[in-house]
Design goal:
Helices cover 40% and strands 16% of the residues. The chain has 254 residues and is α/β, with parallel strands linked by helices. Strands 1-2-3-4-5-6-7-8 form an eight-stranded parallel beta barrel, surrounded by five helices. Helix 9 links the parallel strand 6 (168-172) and strand 7 (213-216). Helix 1 (15-28) packs parallel to helix 2, helix 5 (108-120) packs across helix 7 and helix 7 runs parallel beside helix 9. The structure holds 2-phosphoglycolic acid. 2-phosphoglycolic acid binds next to strand 8.
Length: 254
C-alpha cells in the first residue's frame, strides 16, 4: 500500500507563507520521489487555491480541507462546503480531528454525517480517531476507538462500503500526543493500529486490509522513520513539524 504523509497546517500561514512552503515542497518533490509516497497538505481555507496551484499536475501531491459542513449550501455562517473546497482544488477532507472534537465539541454523530457526506460528494476522507489520556489510563482504548469508528462508518451505504479503497484513510491520533511533544511509543502505536485494523475488519470485512491507517501526534524528523516502519502504520499525519518545508521533506523521505 502506498504510504501517505500528510501535513495539517491548522490555523497557521497566510497565503504568501503557504505559497512559499508549497512551492518548496513542489520543487523538491518534482521528480515524483519518493515514488511510493502520496503527500497531502491540509492548508487553511484561504490558502487552499494557492497550494493546489503549486501542486497542479503532480500525481504524488494533493490538498485537502481541514473542515467543512455536511450540507450542499445554506445558512451556516462561518462554515465552508465541499463544493467550495472542490472549487479551490481540494480532493481530500479531514473529519473527526481531535481539535474539532475537543475544542469545537464535534460529536461522533456529526463526524459520521461529515464522513458520509464527503464520500457522497466524491471527496477522499481522512477520518481521525484517538483516545484521551484518562481513557487510555482507564483501559478504554479499544472501546473509544470502536465507538468512534463504528459511529462514523455505520451510516455508509452499501455502495460506499464497496468503494472505500483509495477513498478512506484512518488517522490514529492519541489526543495526549498532539502538539505536546509526547509521541506514543512503538508498542503503544502498534497496539492501537492492530486494534484499529481488527475493528475495521469486523465492520468492513476484506475491504479493511486496503484502508491506510496513519499515525499522528508529535511526529518529527527524528521519530518518523521508526513510526512509519511499524506494522499497520501506513503513513503519518504531521502538524507542527510540517510547517517548515525542510522538516516536512525529511519526514516524507524517512
Ligand atoms: P502535531 O499535530 O504533529 O503538532 O502533534 C498532529 C495533528 O494534530 O494532526
Amino acid at each position: 500500500m502506498r504510504k501517505i504523509i500528510a501535513a495539517n497546517w491548522k490555523m497557521y500561514k497566510t497565503c504568501g507563507e503557504a505559497a512559499q512552503t508549497a512551492a518548496e515542497l513542489s520543487t523538491a518533490l518534482a521528480d515524483g520521489t519518493p515514488h511510493d509516497r502520496l503527500v497531502l497538505v491540509f492548508p487553511p481555507f484561504t490558502a487552499m487555491d494557492v497550494v493546489a496551484a503549486a501542486f497542479a499536475g503532480k500525481e504524488n501531491l494533493a490538498t485537502g480541507g481541514q473542515n467543512f459542513y455536511p450540507a450542499e449550501q445554506g445558512a451556516f455562517t462561518g462554515e465552508i462546503s465541499t463544493a467550495m473546497l472542490h472549487d479551490a482544488g481540494a480532493t481530500w477532507v479531514l473529519a473527526g480531528h481531535s481539535e474539532r472534537r475537543h475544542v469545537f465539541s464535534e460529536s461522533d454523530e456529526l463526524v459520521a454525517r461529515k464522513t458520509v457526506f464527503a464520500l457522497e460528494q466524491g471527496f477522499k476522507v481522512m477520518l481521525c480517531v484517538g483516545e484521551m489520556l484518562h481513557e487510555r489510563e482507564n483501559g478504554q482504548l479499544s472501546d473509544v476507538l470502536s465507538r468512534q469508528l463504528s459511529t462514523a462508518l455505520e451510516h455508509l451505504s452499501d455502495a460506499q462500503r464497496e468503494t472505500l479503497a483509495g477513498r478512506l484513510a484512518i488517522a490514529y491520533e492519541p489526543v495526549w500526543a498532539i502538539g505536546t511533544g509526547k509521541v506514543a511509543g512503538p508498542v503503544e502505536v502498534q497496539e492501537a493500529h492492530a486494534t484499529l485494523r481488527a475493528l475495521l475488519a469486523s465492520m468492513l470485512g476484506d475491504a479493511a486490509a486496503e484502508l491506510p491507517i496513519l499515525y499522528g501526534g508529535s511526529v518529527k524528523p527524528t521519530n518518523a522513520s521508526t513510526l512509519v516502519g511499524l506494522d499497520n502504520v501506513d503513513g503519518l499525519l504531521v502538524g507542527g513539524a510540517s510547517l517548515e518545508a525542510q522538516s516536512f521533506l525529511q519526514i516524507i523521505g524517512s
